[in-house]
């Protein structure tokens, strides 16, 4: 940066004049620029009084300007007296708020960002420490890690500036600091404080940002960052919705981070994170901002947008590419008016026919709903949605009480006031009417857009009606309507267009023109709400440019100046509630464009109007990581293959495989762009089929990860440094990521290339395609990566549940059995989880859910130790009675012979007693050797249902269990011979062990490693084993049925078996 290294020493008499002369606009920037050295020379505040309450858990500090000082006064008069309150809220969270001591200031409303319930911990129990300086020294605060005294955040050397419309606070950072977050942005995941020598300014001010330009403010605002160091990871949230510039700079002494905010208060939450596990800071932020919404199971399927809905449905079916959900943009509306359909191009009867077809095939449908409501008093056709809202007075208002007008797709529009007390009544009612299952569009989810809120009206928007005419809003259709009598779906599965694709004024061309014409537009100098003294670096200039005016007022008298950045999240919350009112027992699915901190509690997010370029393909990964791993919005994804421009076959093929690992997976492009559906080109067809096949087989694995995000904030996606926090090589990597806890994704990212260079940290990995072991701790170049493939690895130490095959819909997928892939680490250990529920209900009761914990660990038994010999491994599964586990693959294991099945009678006794106590079935009061087979059934397998053969089975096996000496297996042989009568051709072993606490019946079938138990067989809990050199496969039918009220139980398998 061109001011780096400058120093300035000022006397108090020259301070003000120097500051005024220093206020300029930085080159290439719209923001007001003041030399940092000048600001750093401001007098700041001094401590006046300190008091403590709640045993020191709450510290109150009264601050004032130094004696005989008027402060900095660079963007207005400094506030004379401040109050700072520091609260130790939990052991990992410290809350510090600085505000005006005498006058109430705007704060983010509680109902938009609910604060945590009041809690306090003694400072000695906190992982953070709060320190401050006292007079006569300028006030400074320092947050440090209690265990090491490492400074995490300090304003030492940087004065606090607190003016009515300009707040500045600055902290030093270590040199080369690893800072992540501060979005929404299109920069690299790790923010570059150098940024080509210019420093980095992250401006937070929502705007319609077609093309997602670099170095620009975008759709959403998340004023939170994570600071990762080799010594630990911590987080900082500034809970403030006003416009701001957050500046990262490199200096000769290290890095700095500086907030420049144009209103509100300084309301900080410091999160201790962890010294060893970065995931902890993400969990702590999720606890603070609200745990992510649980998503419906079907929402994880593949989504496709297109105008010709029926044609796309038919072509995906013909190409045998799974399609879960169809989407329609604003094309379906009459004159782009929300809550309408075009009666000629998208008649309601035809739309309902398509929705019925989708639902009858277990597929889903979603349409766009924008916030702006068309206003045309001269229209001959009544617009009832506007009329009903007008009667309630729910629109944003100008200061004179008139409706505030903008220009969006319908032409002149009004904007809903989400703070109005009747807004919920109106929004819910419109949803109930238009999206009625009986008479309207029976949608399954909602897509909300343009909710920054966007406006096309050039600033100052003094003639919105004239602007609408000049911009041809709403755009006119360029083709004739389709034949209303033509069948939508023919017997052959083909279709006719429901609506034409072309428009006289294309959305894409218009947006490109707008982007090319973007320029600074200053507001009236006499209105600080329109033109504040400090100008943030808003790409389009004035705060009110291309959006609602910042001086309009909400019903509660709040202004858009303060609440602009909340508009999208407030619409998101209202839309979620409208869907809940419409379908009370089912999880809403809402995808939004504009977000604020805490949005993930209600909605998912797509990354906006990207372009079909390799640059945006690569940037989509960092975008996903920001939202899923930092901002706590796990349901996130980009428009696969790109939205603007025209994609290519190879780019779309690569993006199809990468998109399969987007949490939100949708193909969507501009209305006038070339078609890019996956069935268009052979390469994209193959890529989509392979990508979706892997995604669907892993769907319950990632659904489990979504549930974890909902329950405790565990990130759905992870950068490599989340898993390997001490490996400095991982810190800048943002072209690889972990999908869920265990699957590492390393896509090809260069145009025209079939090679990719990726990094595997020091660990054991398994190639997902071949299951072969790959050693980490190195960069690897993988060549010959076909366009329909994507390199994937399973992290060692994982148990990964997969469906045994994919399906065309997720309803069909849920009928498939599971495979459990055990990928041990270097110590022979592995663990994983599987969560199952009905996929639809909000907060299903425990009786309708299943939580399966899977643990594999290695045991090395010595002869005479009272455990099985030659069986070095154990798996424990907590499995629901309704779950079928078909295959289990243990990777990277060397198989050993089974030398001895049972060592002595005491072994059996320990095993049976342990199993009985675990399930509470009965408590034997007699020697184990006198137990009959019926008792043994209860102990080992619960109710084994042999139906007609039960008596015969009991007669043959009943009697005393023989005394077993080392090497003998008479009882096993006797039991095996009887079972063989029920399942001819099978050979079985009954094994147990004191370390397993269980008994397992093994079938060592002769049909090879992929032998299948026939469906007619009704044995419950029988495990079948087979051997295939480097992998072990276990197949099990439905395991033990638990007692009434129990939902989980233990199923134990011992592997590495030869007979």
From TrEMBL:
The keyword Hydrolase applies. It comes from Candolleomyces aberdarensis. Its EC number is 3.2.1.21. One of its GO terms (biological process) is polysaccharide catabolic process. Gene3D superfamilies: 1.20.1280.50, Glycosidases, glycosyl hydrolase (family 31), Golgi alpha-mannosidase II. It catalyses: Hydrolysis of terminal, non-reducing beta-D-glucosyl residues with release of beta-D-glucose. Keywords: Carbohydrate metabolism, Cell wall biogenesis/degradation, Glycoprotein, Glycosidase, Hydrolase, Polysaccharide degradation, Secreted, Signal. Glucosidase involved in the degradation of cellulosic biomass. Has both alpha- and beta-glucosidase activity. Residues 865-911 form the F-box domain. This is Probable alpha/beta-glucosidase agdC. It holds the Pfam family Gal_mutarotas_2. Belongs to the glycosyl hydrolase 31 family. One of its GO terms (cellular component) is extracellular region. Residues 1-31 form the signal peptide. It is found in: Secreted. The keyword Heme does not apply. GO terms for molecular function: beta-glucosidase activity; carbohydrate binding. It comes from the Eukaryota. SUPFAM superfamilies: (Trans)glycosidases, F-box domain, Galactose mutarotase-like, Glycosyl hydrolase domain.
